[in-house]
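Appendix B. One record, verbatim.
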Amino acid sequence: MCEKNERMPDLMKSRMISVCRTLLWSWLCCTLLTGCWDRIEINDLAIVLATGVDYKNDQVELTSQIFVPRKAGGGDSSGSGGSPSGVTLTRSAEGHTIAEALNRLQRKMPRNMFWGHCEVIIISEDAGKKGIREYIDFFLRYPQIREHAYIFSTPEPAKNILALLDPLERSSAESLREMANMKLGTRTTILELAQSIEGPNQSVILSRMLSLPPEEGQDKLITTPYIKGLSLYKGDTYIRSAHEPLTVGILTLANELNNIIMPVNVEPEKGSYSIQPLEVKTILKPNISAGHWSMKVDVQTRGEVVLNTTDGDLTDPVVMKKLEETWASQLKEMAKSALRLTQQEMRTDLFKFGVEFRRYYPKQWKEQEADWERLYSDLDVDIQVHARVVRTGKSAGPQGIPDEHGS
């Protein structure tokens, strides 16, 4: 009994120490909590969905398409500056630099501009002619802007593209993002743009955006942007645009040909076949032998016939072989035309040949890097195209007419 009474103070002391430790740790945890003293409510933000860069009157004009959350659930159609669902508006400001334009743009907004959701950047060709290095530096340096935002070019003012009231999507920014994801043209991010301009090839290819004419009786802004052609840059400067069929050759050599239907005329047949490539893969194989630089380009493609306006029967192996050979020859000529443009006219490596030489021959590349423009212009390039038709659609016969004896 005495031993038990003697142990009681020790037990109580141990419990008190345990309680004190618990209280001490709780107090320390409370001191580490930051709380909400510096919070920014969603209602205090102007969320930027897309931005555009123009150049006029010797100044940079920055335009932002801004999300309007109070109308996101629907409601009446908005007026000028918004989408038909009323979820966006556009604001612009000018400055001697893009940073100054942003500062002035913020002064026109009653909320703090938030750039974390900016997924699309449009640069006008007029701005591109002055050089885009300043814009790239800003977009990659400014902490809120995503480095994976998609970049587009346009011959129109960029602010006009952002002002479009897309009847299908919630905003023109969403339309452009979906087009990039569908790989209509090139899909270039701001990070890839910077790497291309500063890399061995020192050039870039951008999708070229235009505005569809509005439907009859509709407001001129109620329409959709669409891709037509490519904008070609040498260094950070816009040089020229390219259109079909030249764009097919450019995208083939750049390994970015997707979502296209190609007409193929097989002589002496009347009519044509329309082939949709299912896959186009371009493999670059650089070679340096006895000081001679050369590049072998191997294009491998598989396609599906989606239209046949000839009398040719695709179940005939002879007809099929002739079609594949003609398709390969046609694609090869388009690629050669694109190569001549870059070697003779632009003297610019649009297809990242320099990247491959640097990868496979780092020592020789380091010695000749400064002279790459001349080397590229004189480069011996061998283009080989291997094309296969793997599908003929639901009907193999001419004009899509099923065999009357078939099941």
